[in-house]
Design a protein that fits this description.
By secondary structure, the protein is α/β, with parallel strands linked by helices. The chain folds into five domains: about 170 residues, 3-Layer(aba) Sandwich (Rossmann fold); about 60 residues, Helicase, Ruva Protein, domain 3 (Orthogonal Bundle); about 120 residues, Zinc Finger, Delta Prime, domain 3 (Up-down Bundle); about 40 residues; about 120 residues, GMP Synthetase, Chain A, domain 3 (2-Layer Sandwich). The chain contains 30 helices and eight strands. Helix 10 crosses helix 11. Pfam families: DNA_pol3_delta2 (PF13177), DNA_pol3_gamma3 (PF12169), DNAX_ATPase_lid (PF22608). GO terms for molecular function: ATP binding; DNA binding; DNA-directed DNA polymerase activity; metal ion binding.
Length: about 600
């Protein structure tokens, strides 16, 4: 006898052997015992959840010689012939290969004849959504008023494609995806039947890869058994299914907790080199964080774990994260997974998500370490400024002076220009920090890598940066000026795009820079104000005098001072002409 696949050999032959679908089994069994079966049923649900198997079991129970019964005996000639697929009164019809109206008319013509040697003539129409519109119309009237001896069972994975007139004439049963425990128990029965030792963690890997389908699980189990030797091991299951070991995820998440992003990205690179799909990696990471939440919630939920086993190291790792942090990780990965489906650069999206996750603060760890690590200095500075403002306002009120508008603000702050346009507010404070620490080497690195990084973007994304230019850079960030405010606002508000572009630059320059956006008009005023406040023009003159006198003292040269001096020394008429016609079309000729 030829070899048969597991999903064929171990197909359930009674309601008792079915895995899951309790609501379907109970309803059908009660109807069989009470003799209240109807003429048309619709079984809908994902693939491999038992629709066709349930239809055959129901057909056997209807025509069993011991009827009425809630279970077929599987011993009488009728049950045996239906199991073998040779009974003349139980007709299986594949709508995928017989979708024309002619095939449906042939069924309609024969349905009026009485069954040959059974109580009911049962028609099982599989993949019924593949029927043509004319075939549905031909079936409609017969389905509504069939002969008393006819029963129609329609099975489909896409019920939304069925006409509402067909659905309304059937009793509908929605089959759900099977749980990992149901699949696990069924695979144990199969392995015990063939006397093959196994590791339970290997079965969990197969159950997770099956995604709720029993047929997929048994097919994959069949493949792993053929690959394995005397024992079904975890390594064999991981290799055949393409899944990843829980220890790999443990190391990756531990590195993420320690903010060691370089190690996390290296792990992703190695997994991608081994042929792992980034979309599958994102899905597995979501499952891993979900399991950590279960371990963190209660030890009674260990049976619901899908990817990891309830070991001490995983329990300890789960309690080192706050619940909010894990929820944030899952949210970031879920949004990234949706975007990856419409992109060819899935690995970049996954790496960007991990970078974003690395910047999420773990509130639980921070709360425990607040005594030793202290408070963020930036927060201290903001609190000090607010306390100073409150003190000044209190003194003015005590002296009988009513503060109006921004009169209580320090004069130095009021004198600073506000880099503001009609559509976008530039981050002035952060740009000033970049200018304070700007170096020529950093801006040269950015400009040299600019064209190559743009070539890695999609055309629609690169168009946003067509009229932009990097103007200043420090060791951690760089400033880009935009000719058009709308482009500046669109780039600045698209956090995912800026992260992808910064990562593309990082792969070329070897340094991760943050992108800061500012309109061109705001940049000119902000730059001039910064040079004037810091006396950079005077430093430049001092530097020139020192070099002229032969001094060997080193004076730090500002990376954008020369450009600023040129702007400051330009004729107002030339500046106005360049604004009107553009610098490329204005040529200055000395008399």
């Amino acid at each position: 006898m030829t070899y048969q696949a597991f999903y064929r050999v171990y197909r359930p032959q009674s309601f008792r052997e079915m895995s899951g679908q309790t609501h379907v089994k109970r309803t059908l069994q009660n109807a069989l015992l009470a003799n209240k079966t109807t003429h048309a049923y619709l079984f809908s649900g994902p693939r491999g959840t038992g629709k066709t198997s349930t239809a055959k079991i129901f057909a056997k129970a209807l025509n069993c010689e011991k009827a009425p019964t809630n279970e077929p005996c599987n011993e009488c000639p009728t049950c045996l012939s239906i199991t073998e697929g040779s009974h003349p009164d139980v007709i299986e019809f594949d709508a995928a290969s017989n979708s024309r109206v002619e095939e449906m008319r042939d069924i309609i013509e024969k349905v009026r004849f009485a069954p040959a040697n059974a109580r009911f003539k049962v028609y099982i129409i599989d993949e019924v959504h593949m029927l043509s519109t004319s075939a549905f119309n031909a079936l409609l009237k017969t389905l509504e008023e069939p002969p008393p001896h006819a029963v129609f069972i329609l099975a489909t994975t896409e019920p939304h494609k069925l006409p509402a007139t067909i659905i309304s004439r059937c009793q509908r049963f929605d089959f759900k995806r099977l749980s990992s425990n149901d699949i696990l128990e069924r695979m144990k029965v199969v392995l015990e039947d063939i006397n093959l030792p196994y590791e339970e963690q290997a079965l969990k890997v197969i159950a997770q890869a099956a995604a709720g389908g029993m047929r997929d699980a048994l097919s994959l189990l069949d493949q792993v058994v053929s690959f394995s030797g005397e024992t079904l091991t975890l390594e064999n299951a991981l290799l055949v299914s393409g899944s990843i070991s829980q220890d790999v995820f443990f190391e990756m998440v531990s590195s993420l907790k320690e903010k060691d992003i370089a190690k996390v990205l290296t792990s992703i690179e190695e997994l991608s080199a081994d042929g792992k799909d980034p979309v599958r990696l994102a899905e597995d990471l979501i499952t891993f964080f979900r399991d950590l939440l279960l371990l963190q919630t209660s030890s009674d939920l260990n049976e619901l774990l899908e990817l990891i086993s309830p070991e001490d190291k995983f329990t300890q790792l789960a309690h080192e994260f706050s619940a909010d942090t894990l929820y944030t990780y899952i949210d970031i990965l879920s949004k990234t997974q949706q975007e990856m489906r419409f992109s060819h650069h899935t690995k970049i999206y996954l790496e960007t998500a991990l970078l974003k996750m690395g910047q999420v603060s773990n509130s639980a760890v921070s709360a425990q370490a607040v005594g030793s690590a202290g408070i963020d200095p930036a927060v201290n500075e903001k609190v000090a400024n607010l306390e100073k403002m409150v003190q000044q306002l209190t003194m003015q009120l005590a002296n009988g002076v009513q503060p109006q508008g921004n009169a209580a603000m320090p004069q130095k702050e009021a004198a600073r220009p506000r880099a503001k346009s009609n559509n976008y507010n530039a981050p002035v404070g952060r740009i000033r920090e970049v200018l304070k620490n700007a170096t020529k080497q950093d801006i040269h690195n950015i400009k040299n890598a600019w064209a190559q990084a743009l070539s890695q973007l999609q055309k629609s994304q690169a168009a946003l940066l067509a009229e932009s230019e990097p103007v200043a850079a420090s060791g951690s960030a760089f400033v880009v000026k935009f000719k058009y405010d709308i482009h500046c606002r669109m780039v600045a508000e698209n956090r995912e795009f800026t992260a992808v572009f910064s990562q593309a630059l990082a792969q070329i320059t070897g340094n991760m820079y943050e992108l800061l956006c500012i309109p061109e008009t705001d940049w000119v005023s902000l730059r001039q104000s910064f040079i004037k406040e810091n006396g950079l023009n005077q430093k430049k003159e001092t530097s020139d005098e020192s070099q002229g006198s032969g001094s060997t003292d080193h004076i730090q040269e500002d990376p954008f001072l020369d450009d600023a001096q040129e702007v400051a020394s330009e004729d107002p008429l030339i500046t106005e002409a360049e604004k009107m016609f553009g610098k490329d079309f204005v040529e200055v000729v000395e008399d």
